[in-house]
Design brief:
The structure holds three protein chains of three kinds. In chain A, α2 runs parallel beside α3. Helix content of chain A is 40%, strand content 12%. Chain B is of the alpha/beta class. In chain B, strands 2-1-3-4 form a four-stranded parallel sheet, sandwiched between helices. The radius of gyration of chain B is 15 Å and the shape is globular. The chains are: A alpha/beta, B alpha/beta, C alpha/beta. Chains in contact: A-B, A-C, B-C.
Chain lengths: 367, 141, 378
């Protein structure tokens, strides 16, 4: 049993009504959400309630992982007056991981999220194809099915139920999204906010049948994806084939919410080849790729961020060489996270496995 | 001219001549409009183009830059370099249709208190005529 | 202009490869930096080759430009020259970027011989990656006509597609007639040809005429392009609309050969403002876009590197949301560079405008003082 807010609108209008209410009655100073003013959709921090009518909080688009923006705002000081953010589950998880790394603060942020049906690649927002798709997207949510055009990482995502939110909007796994807006109230603060609006608060039982069904579908997709890409049998040759076209722009690291270093090791002087290095490589192999270390960069980045990778798929979205990065990162991080039984962003109190240790563990890695 | 409009003006002064000019002005009891905000930089040659652009894009109605007269620069050639940078910025803004006239570059020497005050007043009047910077209210910037 | 004329049998690619092989075998060059196909055959990468057998796999004019050559040469020589003499085969805009970088002390050209090739343009990376085989065919078509619509937007209107500040130029325009032109430009280039006893005193006016004709055609096209673009981007509304999709991923800066800073100002802590600042701005304007400061990034980056912009188009290739960055930058660059009468990368000798000055110049950017201003006012 949990407290639920019912608003008598469809899910999109319901959440907009709620956001407008809390902004108007001063519960929050601003709302960070997706806005559609004109043709293109982007994140925006809104403080004028009149602008809420342009927002599209549940739109299946992720321009850049919002955790990066939240960390950018809260890095030097926590937010002093409350703001509400409507972001996707993986964005909240990424932000929690950043907070664990002292790259931000959750203070005064009111998290609203939803059971996520996935997002489309950013290119579809750019070329406008998303406008054709969007009706179908809502229909597929009602049918509890997965669209084949979604981001590869979203089709195989199993953590689409948000953690650490104040409010969770019931989107994916809800057949009634066109008639009702159901919002679960997870914290006291959420109840307080909900009471200030004119929806009905009731004690409600969550029916998880459809969510479980969706999860099974996603897990099947996951298995299929890994099998299709033969990811377990790649080996060095396979990696060279995949990453051969990498142009060393490091866009993936720049877009990754977890890659927070302002200067990456692989951009630093330490990883730069000196003339004698080039000379010795030439002697040894007869030829060397310039700039060197493409596979090293990718595998190195996987090792650095793998433990916290939330599988948002932003890296693949921004790759100019269209490398299927998210598949490799999802598989790689899954194996790391399984070792430590760690789900990134699930529990804010839990330390990151690499910043802690147990005296009696992993005897198998000792030789 | 709209009398209620009080422009926000950023005035970059080099620490050797421009700032000196403002000190001389105060010694003579000269006044400049209070909406002109002076900023002291070490040398106009050390002022990155980004700071001028940032003032402009975040809604300052005008930006003035004052360094030493030619030949007077404490670092020999900082003011000439600054002039090149101002030329680059104004040329960029001009090409993109973004009102380069909101940026001024004028030499002010240490002893020229009146010149400093006059520049502030003249620029203030000029910007009042131009009206507010349209970028100030843009939400999509 | 004088140069050597080579009779070629089949394709120029093979002819040049054979020549390069000879330079390695005869130990004139210790290594050659040249684009090669990657193992998966779906893209190209620069390879520094010493083993002459590997030259066989090289490609003089690959259909795409995944990494700008200037960046490649920077990564190779930033920390100093290697002992061996190295030949670098690049497209003209890559050569120009390398020369700009050498003036900015990011590239050491001491032991490097720059060899440029006439360039018909490159296919945008995303178009090529869709189907590499088809991409190669499209490029072959572009190579034949030199007026293809499938090359990068900037390549269509580029008139610096030939001889630049390189040491040796390979003229392939007009190679259908069975001629290939080797044009030495500097001492290094002449040394190379002297070493192989190649006579470079031939008249090459046939090549020059074709080049001149193409250049003129392109200049007309460029004018048209400028006019169209001006209408598209000029003014606040148009400009903000142009950049509205920007994700602030800074990919354009990462692939730009001229943006050499290890850490960009816009990636540094300088713009990490306190949270109150953002909330205040949102209150003042009603809302602010996130990520913030995208236009500041583009204009700021522009003000930093525009005097050296070689209009290669790499930024647009790498943009995940396909903004017309390279067109905007090239458009602005032309105006700014004209201000200083500067063409980037044409010669190692003229200094970059931002690191030099003249006492008597740019008077039109000063605002002269009117002595009587306050008196008039009263």
């Amino acid at each position: 049993m949990s407290k639920t807010l019912y608003i008598d609108e469809n899910v999109n209008d319901g959440i907009k009504k709620f956001l407008r209410c809390i902004l108007e009655n001063g519960k929050v100073k601003g709302v960070l959400t997706l806005i559609n003013e004109g043709e293109k959709i982007a994140y925006s921090l809104i403080s004028n309630p009149e602008l809420i009518k342009y927002t599209v909080p549940l739109y299946p688009i992720m321009p850049l992982n919002a955790a990066r923006s939240l960390s950018h705002i809260t890095l030097s000081e926590p937010i002093s007056e409350p703001i509400a953010v409507v972001i996707k589950p993986c964005e909240i998880r990424a932000f929690i991981e950043l907070v664990k790394r002292s790259q931000g603060s959750v203070e005064n942020i009111f998290f609203i999220s939803f059971t996520c049906g996935g997002v489309y690649p950013i290119k579809m927002n750019v070329n406008g194809k998303i406008n054709e798709k969007i009706d179908n997207f809502w229909r597929l949510i009602e049918k509890n099915e997965i669209d084949a055009d979604l981001r590869a990482s979203c089709k195989v995502c199993k953590e689409f139920i948000p953690y650490n939110t104040d409010m969770t909007i019931f989107l994916a796994g809800n057949k009634e999204i066109n008639n009702q807006c159901r919002i679960f109230l997870n914290t006291d603060r959420a109840e307080d906010f909900a009471e200030s609006t004119d929806g009905n608060i009731v004690q409600d039982k969550i029916n998880t049948e459809l969510i479980d069904e969706l999860k099974v579908k996603r897990l099947e997709e996951r298995k299929k994806l890994f099998e299709d890409k033969k990811i377990e049998k790649l080996g060095l040759e396979g990696l060279i084939d995949i990453f051969g076209r990498c142009i060393s722009c490091h866009a993936c690291g720049n877009a990754c919410p977890i890659c927070y270093c302002s200067l990456c090791y692989f951009d630093s002087q330490e990883s730069e080849y000196k003339p004698v290095d080039y000379e010795s490589e030439l002697e040894k192999r007869g030829a060397i790729r310039v700039p060197p270390n493409t596979v090293t960069y990718q595998v190195g980045r996987l090792i650095h961020v793998g433990i916290s990778c939330v599988g948002c798929g932003c890296c693949e979205d921004v790759c100019p060489s269209e490398i299927q990065l998210s598949t490799i990162f999802i598989k790689g991080s899954e194996s790391i996270q399984e070792k430590f039984n760690y789900i990134p962003g699930k529990n804010p109190e839990e330390l990151i496995p690499i910043s802690t240790f147990d005296i009696k563990e992993f005897p198998e890695v000792e030789t | 001219m709209n009398d209620s409009f009080k422009p926000k003006i950023i005035y970059f002064l080099c620490s050797w001549c421009g700032t000196g000019g403002s000190e001389t002005a105060s010694a003579f009891g000269l006044h400049y409009p209070e909406n002109v905000l002076p900023f002291r930089v070490n040398c106009t040659g050390s002022l990155s183009t980004v700071y001028i652009l940032r003032a402009f894009l975040e809604g300052a109605d005008g930006v003035v830059i004052s360094g030493c007269h030619p030949g007077d620069c404490h670092y020999n050639n900082g003011n000439f370099r600054a002039r090149r940078r101002v030329a680059i910025i104004k040329s960029i803004l001009d090409t993109l249709g973004l009102e380069p006239e909101r940026i001024w570059f004028r030499y002010v020497a240490h002893g020229e208190g009146k010149r400093f005050v006059d520049t502030a007043a003249e620029f203030n009047d000029y910007i009042k005529k131009l009206g507010p910077n349209p970028l100030k209210t843009r939400r999509d910037i | 202009m004088r140069g050597a004329i080579f009779k070629i049998e089949k394709d120029f690619d093979k002819e040049i490869r054979n020549f390069l092989k000879k330079t390695i075998v005869k130990k004139f060059f210790g290594a050659i930096l040249i684009p090669c196909k990657v193992p998966a055959n779906d893209s190209y990468a620069y390879l520094l080759i010493r083993d002459e057998a590997l030259i066989e796999k090289a490609s003089i004019l690959p259909p795409v430009m995944p990494i700008q050559g200037g960046r490649v040469l920077k990564s190779f020589t930033r920390l100093g020259k290697i002992d061996a003499k190295v030949a670098v085969i690049m497209r003209p805009c890559e050569i120009r970027a390398s020369i700009e970088l050498s003036k900015l002390e990011q590239v050491d050209l001491t032991n490097v011989t720059l060899i440029s090739v006439d360039c018909p343009g490159v296919i945008p990376l995303s178009d090529y990656l869709e189907d590499p085989v088809k991409g190669t065919d499209t490029f072959k078509e572009a190579f034949k006509t030199w007026e293809s619509d499938s090359v990068r937007e900037l390549c269509k209107v580029c008139y610096n597609f030939t001889l630049t500040g390189s040491d040796l130029h390979i003229g392939i325009l007009g190679s259908e007639q069975g001629n290939l032109f080797l044009i030495p430009v500097s001492e290094k280039g002449r040394n190379l040809l002297d070493f192989f006893n190649i006579n470079y005193e031939n008249d090459i006016s046939s090549w020059e005429n074709i080049v001149k004709k193409k250049e003129d055609e392109r200049k007309i096209k460029r004018k048209e392009f400028r006019e169209n673009l001006r209408q598209e981007i000029e003014g606040i509304d148009n400009l903000l609309k142009t950049f509205s999709d920007c994700l602030n991923c800074h990919n354009c800066m990462r692939v730009c050969p001229i943006c050499y800073c290890r850490q960009c100002f816009f990636d540094s802590d300088a713009l990490n403002l306190p949270s109150t600042n953002y909330i205040k701005r949102a209150e003042n304007r009603g809302s602010i876009k996130f990520p913030p400061e995208t236009l500041l990034f583009h204009l700021g980056r522009m003000s930093h590197m525009i005097t050296s912009c070689v209009s290669c188009g790499s930024c647009e290739d790498a943009c995940p949301v396909s903004l017309p960055i390279s067109r905007v930058f090239s458009f602005v660059a032309e105006n700014v560079q004209n201000l200083f009468n500067y063409v980037p990368g044409m010669s190692v000798k003229d200094p970059v405008p931002t690191i030099t000055y003249e006492e008597e110049e740019l008077k039109e950017f000063e605002n002269p003082y009117i002595e009587t201003y306050n008196i008039q006012r009263m």
